[in-house]
C-alpha cells in the first residue's frame, strides 16, 4: 500500500511522520504549483471551489508517482467539503486511475465509520504503535505552528524582513527531517534562536492585522498568495485565527474528551450578527473578527474560496461588523483566476488605509 493525501499548508510534515511511523509507504504530493492547479481546473467541475481543484491536482501528481491509496477527510453540515471525497473519487475513476480512497469522517457521531476506515488503513496494529506515531507527529505539528507564529510576530520588526521567511523555510525543512521528538525540539529551538537573533528596527510599532476565513485558504500559502509573508514585509504584524493544531484539537481531542470553550466563546461573539451554524468556518469568521476588534487590532483580512457558501454569508455580514466596531475589514475571494498584481495592490491599499487611520487616532489622543 502506497498512501498519499492532499496538501494544506504545513500539514504534510506531521502527516508524513504519522503515516511513516505507522509502517506505511508514504508518497507526499509534490509542492503545489501552477501545474497542480492546472490539472485540478482541467478535470474538476467549473464551479467547484479552489480547494477541491487543488486536491485533484495533488492526487493526480501522487498517483502518477505510484500512489495506490488516497487518505481524505470527511465533513458534516452545509459546507461542500463533506462531498469532496466522493466527488474526487468519481473524477479520478473517470480518468482511469486505479486506487483506493479511505475517507475519515468526523468522529462526532461517526465512531463506526471512523473505526472502519482506520482498520482498512492499518489492519491489526497495536495501540502502543499508534500512540507512539501520534506523539511524534503531534510534536511536529506543534513545532511548525510555533515557528509560523514566531515568524509572523517578528517579521515586521526586522531590518531585513525577507530573512525571517528564509529562516522559517529552513526551520520547516529541519523539522521535517527530524527523526524523533528530541530532534524535532532541538530543531525548533535552533530556528527560534536564529529568528530572535535577527537585527530589529528600534522603536518601531507595527500595524496589527488578523486573518479570518476558510481554513484551507488560511493555511495554504499557494491559495492565499503568501499573504502572511506579503503583509509582514509591508511592516504588518499578522495573526491567524486558525492553525493546524487548533483544527486538530477541535475535531479530535475536544470532540472526544471535552467541549471546546474557545469555539463556544467565538460563537457567542458572532451571535449578534450570525446566530446559527452555516457550515465551514462561517460563524468563526464573524466571531473572530469581533474578537480582533476587542484585542485592538488595526484591521482584519477575510479570506475564502470563490463560491464558498459559508464565507459568502460571512462576507455579507462583515461590513456591519466593521461599521459597528470601527475596524476595517478587507474580504478577498480566491480562485484559479486570481491575479497576484491586483491582489497585492488591494493589500497595499488596505495597509495604507490602516496607517492613515492610525495616524488620525494618534492625533486625537
Q: What keyword list fits this structure?
A:
58% helix, 365 residues, alpha/beta, 3 domains, 4-stranded parallel β-sheet, Rossmann fold, CoA_activase_DUF2229, kinase, FldB/FldC_alpha/beta
Determine the mean pLDDT: 92
Largest sheet: 4 strands, parallel
According to DSSP, the number of beta strands is: 8
Element order, helices and strands?
A: EHEHHEHEHHHHEHHEHHHEHEH
Counted up, domains total 3
Overall CATH class of the largest domain: Alpha Beta
Q: Could you tell me the radius of gyration in angstroms?
A: 21 Å
> Counting H and I runs of at least 4 residues, what is the number of helices?
15
What is the CATH third-level topology name of the largest domain?
Rossmann fold
> What best-fitting shape do the alpha-carbon axes yield?
globular
Q: Which regions have little confidence, pLDDT < 50, spanning 5+ residues?
A: 254-258
Approximate helicity band: 55-70%
- Please state roughly what percent of the residues sit in beta strands, choosing from under 5%, 5-15%, 15-25%, 25-35%, 35-45% or over 45%: 5-15%
Biggest sheet strand order reads 2-1-3-4
Helix and strand content put the structural class at alpha/beta
CATH architecture of the largest domain: 3-Layer(aba) Sandwich
Instruction: Note the gap between the termini.
Output: 65 Å
Explain the overall architecture.
By secondary structure, the protein is α/β, with parallel strands linked by helices. It has three domains: 2-125, 3-Layer(aba) Sandwich (Rossmann fold); 138-202; 206-365, 3-Layer(aba) Sandwich (Rossmann fold), CATH 3.40.50. Helix content is 58%, strand content 11%. The protein contains 15 helices and eight strands. It has helices at 12-21, 34-43, 50-64, 81-94, 111-122, 127-154, 161-177, 181-196, 215-219, 227-233, 244-257, 261-270, 282-294, 309-325, 340-364; strands at 2-4, 25-26, 69-73, 100-104, 207-213, 236-240, 299-305, 329-334. It has a four-stranded parallel beta sheet, sandwiched between helices. The chain has a four-stranded parallel beta sheet with strand order 6-5-7-8, with helices on both faces. Strand 7 (299-305), helix 14 (309-325) and strand 8 (329-334) form a beta-alpha-beta unit. The longest helix is centred in the middle third of the chain and has 28 residues, at 127-154. The protein is globular. It starts with a strand and ends with a helix.
Amino acid at each position: 500500500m502506497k498512501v498519499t493525501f492532499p496538501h494544506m499548508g504545513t500539514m504534510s510534515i506531521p502527516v508524513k511522520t504519522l503515516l511513516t511511523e505507522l509502517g506505511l509507504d508514504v508518497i507526499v504530493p509534490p509542492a503545489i504549483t501552477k501545474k497542480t492547479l492546472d490539472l485540478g481546473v482541467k478535470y474538476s467541475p467549473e464551479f467547484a471551489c479552489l480547494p477541491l481543484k487543488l486536491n485533484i491536482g495533488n492526487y493526480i501528481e501522487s498517483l502518477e508517482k505510484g500512489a495506490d491509496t488516497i487518505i481524505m477527510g470527511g465533513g458534516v453540515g452545509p459546507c461542500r467539503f463533506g462531498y469532496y471525497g466522493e466527488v474526487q473519487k468519481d473524477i479520478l475513476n473517470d480518468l482511469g486511475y486505479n486506487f483506493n480512497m479511505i475517507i475519515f469522517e468526523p468522529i462526532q457521531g461517526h465512531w463506526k465509520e471512523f473505526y472502519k476506515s482506520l482498520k482498512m488503513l492499518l489492519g491489526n496494529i497495536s495501540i502502543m504503535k499508534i500512540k507512539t506515531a501520534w506523539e511524534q507527529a503531534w510534536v511536529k505539528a506543534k513545532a511548525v505552528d510555533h515557528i509560523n507564529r514566531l515568524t509572523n510576530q517578528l517579521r515586521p520588526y526586522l531590518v531585513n524582513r525577507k530573512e525571517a521567511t528564509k529562516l522559517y523555510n529552513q526551520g520547516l525543512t529541519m523539522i521535517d527531517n527530524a527523526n524523533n521528538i528530541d530532534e524535532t525540539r532541538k530543531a525548533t529551538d535552533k530556528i527560534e534562536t536564529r529568528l530572535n537573533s535577527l537585527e530589529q528596527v528600534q522603536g518601531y510599532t507595527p500595524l496589527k492585522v488578523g486573518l479570518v476565513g476558510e481554513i484551507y485558504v488560511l493555511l495554504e500559502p499557494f491559495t492565499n498568495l503568501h499573504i502572511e509573508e506579503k503583509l509582514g514585509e509591508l511592516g504588518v504584524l499578522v495573526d491567524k485565527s486558525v492553525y493546524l493544531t487548533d483544527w486538530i484539537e477541535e475535531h479530535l481531542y475536544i470532540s472526544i474528551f471535552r467541549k471546546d470553550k474557545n469555539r463556544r466563546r467565538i460563537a457567542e461573539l458572532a451571535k449578534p450578527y450570525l446566530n446559527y451554524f452555516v457550515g465551514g468556518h462561517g460563524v468563526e469568521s464573524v466571531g473572530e473578527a469581533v474578537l480582533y476588534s476587542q484585542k485592538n487590532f488595526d484591521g482584519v483580512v477575510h479570506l475564502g474560496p470563490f463560491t464558498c457558501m459559508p464565507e459568502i454569508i460571512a462576507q455579507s455580514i462583515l461590513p456591519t461588523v466593521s461599521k459597528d466596531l470601527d475596524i476595517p475589514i478587507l474580504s478577498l475571494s480566491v480562485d484559479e483566476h486570481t491575479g497576484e498584481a491586483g491582489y497585492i495592490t488591494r493589500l497595499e491599499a488596505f495597509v495604507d488605509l490602516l496607517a492613515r487611520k492610525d495616524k488620525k487616532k494618534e492625533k486625537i489622543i
